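WARN no homologs supplied; continuing
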Amino acid sequence: MKSFSKLTEDIEERRAAAKQRQKDQMSTFKMKGAAATQAAAERTDQAKSRHDAANQASKERDDEYKARRKAEFQARQDAEAEADAEAERKAQLKAGIKAEIEADRAQKQQEREDKKKDQEKEKIEQIKQMRREKVKSVINKQ
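OK structure emitted
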């Protein structure tokens, strides 16, 4: 059998070993906790950096889309302005041609009316001339 002193020493050794195991477990627990915290922080940083990269890429795509839409809108506006200018030019050309045609028609109408008046004057003059000749012939017969 063991003596009391041996038993006390044995208990003290066991207590010391238990304390040492507890310290070792605590340090292992702390290291695992720190490692887990660090790993979580790293994952969070990686996720944040992926998220930031995705946001940046999304912002760039949005900016490109907005720029493209703005350019397309400006191109449509320019095309409409050009089409309007072309339509205005054609309308002015058409109006000019119509004015020329109308002027030609008016001139031809005036020429026809003048010719008709001249013909009527000639006819009237011929009638007057015939009457004068009749009057002269009647006067000469007497």
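The helical segments are 4-141.
OK
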